[in-house]
Amino acid sequence: TAISLFGLQSGAALATVVGVLIEVPLMLAVVRVVNRTRGWYENNTAR
Questions:
Q1: What are the pLDDT tens digits along the chain (47 aa)?
Q2: Residue 43 in domain
Q3: Long-range CB contacts (within 8 A, 24+) of 42-47
């Protein structure tokens, strides 16, 4: 709806579309990778 309201040249419409379609799935993928590789950087010694 942002593109239909403001047009393709609007920065606000572009930010809305990019945020939903690109940034959110990318951040979820990064979280998934970090969670799967948690053992690489966790300290295994008990305090």
A1: 677 788 878 888 888 888 888 988 999 999 999 999 988 887 766 55
A2: no
A3: none
